[in-house]
Design goal:
The chain has about 350 residues and is of the alpha+beta class. Helices cover about 40% and strands about 15% of the residues. The protein has 3 domains: about 130 residues, Glucose Permease (Domain IIA); about 120 residues, Lysozyme (Orthogonal Bundle); about 55 residues, no CATH class. α4 crosses α8, α6 crosses α7 and α6 crosses α8. Bound molecules: zinc ion.
Amino acid sequence: MIEPVEAPVSQEWGLTRFARDNPHVYGDNPGHRGRDYASFEGASVRAPEDGVVAHVGTTNVWAWGYVVSIVAGSDRNERRHYFCHLQSGSASVAEGDEVKAGDPIARSGCTPNWPPHLHWEIRGGGPEVMGGSIDPRTLLHPDRYSKSALRTYARTAAERAGIEPAIFARQIERESGWNIYAHGPDGAFGIARIAPRRHPTVNPWDAYAALDYAAALMADHLGAFGSYELALAAYNAGPTAVKRHGGVPPSSETRDYVNSILGEKKVRPVQSIYDDPDFWLKSKWEELAQTAIQVVNRARAGVTPTDDESRFLNSRYRDLMENWPRLMEAERRRAAGEPRA
Ligand SMILES: [Zn+2]
């Protein structure tokens, strides 16, 4: 496949620059579903691959303006190329025409409120992300986006960031299975499953940039927390959660994530908080202490505890006392280096 016009790329497929620059207005649909070229008005636009012209004319859909579309791939049914904001009436082809890669099809134009550019969008046959559109880079450079090329690059990115390449590779395997179109309901996208809401400076759909970013992020977490166990937990659940819990957060999702990547039972799955005395002590004791401090401070100012606060303090206190022998036994085992019961 060849590029449809000779001009620099001004906006890639993926997160728009606007969404990246304005994370506070980042919505559910921040994506640029095509690739823009900063081509001057009147530049020749050519067919990127062999196909059949499916449509020529003006459309109001997505403010595309004057459009030529071409169906291509196996049975001329695999994908559809859209060339948008063309110079009105500039098509040199008609519906039903066969075109070869490189054939001129129309002239580049502009939209009323934007500098001249060509918008090239490919739909259909692709993964159902970004409205079913396909990143043109993966078709222009299929070798560059193969699993083995991405694996090789992940190793380089890990080495450059100073983290263990084998662990990083297992992490990416776990995140996306090397699928550059991976996405989920959690709002984390792409090969490294990066959430733009939390990381607005990187395009999560740009596989190479995302690998670099993820490796640097892991290096940061490793520096802050000192172990892969905690660094991975921070990548999965966020550094705040790791700090708050003073360790791997107790969610089974995060524990499973860490264990599957480190390839051993580094952290135990938690069935209930009582199975993890450390966590139990820290979180429950902290809650009790926090509430007690507030109550005492207000008592000093002459304010009596509310019924809710009294009930909470009483129930937490009972809870702690009932479990005290169990917690002390866990603490003795920990101090003696014995495995947990
Ligand atoms: Zn565009």
